[in-house]
Amino acid sequence: MNDFSAEAMGLVIREHREARSPSMTQEDLAEQAGYGKGGAASISRIECGIVSPRNRRLAAIALALQLTPEQLEQEAEDRTRSLARRRSVRPVKLRDQVAGTKRRHAEITGKVAQRSKVTQELVEPFNRAHDAACDDFFLKFVGLAEGVGGAPEPEIPREETAESTGEKPPEIRVEAMSAGIANAIRGAAAGGTAGAAVGGAAAYGAFTAAAAFGTASTGTAISTLSGVAATNATLALLGGGTLTAGGAGMAGGTLLLAGLVAAPAAALAATGFYVLRRRRNRKEEERLRTELEAAEAALEQSQQGFDAMVDVLHHSTEIIEYIGVHGTHALERWRTNLPPEPRNWETLGHEGQEQYGKFLMVAGCFVAVSSIDVGALLTAEPNTLREKHSSIDETLRFAGKSIRSLV
Question: Is residue 308 part of a domain?
Fold first, then answer.
């Protein structure tokens, strides 16, 4: 766990940036540190103490400021201790204590609001990218693949094969999802009811149900469910289908993360009445101070989870956007080269069959990225957060690399 607060790191970075000669703006720092579109907003969040940069980002910022990450971290640790000492000093007069407590309450409330705003700002582009990729690539591929009869039955990898083959868990997960989608397509092509003809969100749920490498909310393995149960379980897991199909979008449930991010607000709600009171006695002031300290601790404890969530949503959106653009273009080229209907596996030819397999893999990556449990990062204990984030990062890196090699 870091020995510095996000607030302290933000102050240190801002001071070094402003001390540069010639002057360096937030836009300049963002560009030199390799941030993409909207980079200045990311630097602003860091300097305001809303987000603390992860290792890779911190190294890039340090380089832009002609420092080392270790220098920034050490200064941030020193500043964290300095801020803590300053806040621990309690004024003697009650009215000064009241003023200080009101100021701290306003700071915490502001940070909670900022976290919720950041979450919303990240979720909205993710939802847009997901819905475009789902409608323009995933469902269109499924529709085309349904028209191909006689596709071979895919081999579904098992988790235990990871040890014997040396494959990484993300590879096993994506391959299992791709195989599940292929089996659902085969069933639809053979006259099943899981196809795109049943309609947007339901088709999406039916096709991804067999691919989800996990369990439904009941704990039942999704691969053992079928029909409406499979559809409902997967839609619950993945967020309700696309916006255009009447669902909430893959990250629809993620919109609720604002509530999790703002968890300390629960501690603040009970204190609001006393904060607004013109007068209060020392006992009330002491109780309010204790509750505010608890809210501050909750914010600090959840900071690393929040930072991890921001990192994951950024990376996920980039991957999904790539599928929506490049995957869709590649699929359209494949469609124009398909043989006339009725089609079967043999008439696709070697090149068409190979492309079919690539699109299945991209579809598996799409579902793997879209179904990442972002909320688990916010609720993870500090000792398990690093492991969870590392596992998610492995999935994202594997999916991103695979997609770019396939389309």
Answer: yes
The set of long-range contacts for 75-84, using a CB threshold of 8 Å and a minimum separation of 24, is: 75/12, 76/4, 76/5, 76/8, 76/9, 76/12, 77/3, 77/4, 77/8, 79/4, 79/8, 79/9, 79/11, 79/12, 80/3, 80/4, 80/5, 80/7, 80/8, 83/5, 83/7, 83/8
Domain boundary among the residues 89, 118, 144 is at 89
343 and 232 in a common domain: yes
Single residue among 89, 112, 145 that ends a domain in this structure: 89
Q: Give pLDDT tens digits for 234-251.
A: 333 333 444 344 444 434
Higher pLDDT, 378 or 164: 378
Domain that holds residue 29: 1-89
Distance, in Å, from the CA atom of 264 to the CA atom of 276, rounded to the nearest integer, reads 18
Residue 161 token pair: 């094969």
Q: What percent of the chain has pLDDT over 90?
A: 31
pLDDT at 236: 38
- Say whether both 395 and 310 belong to one domain: yes
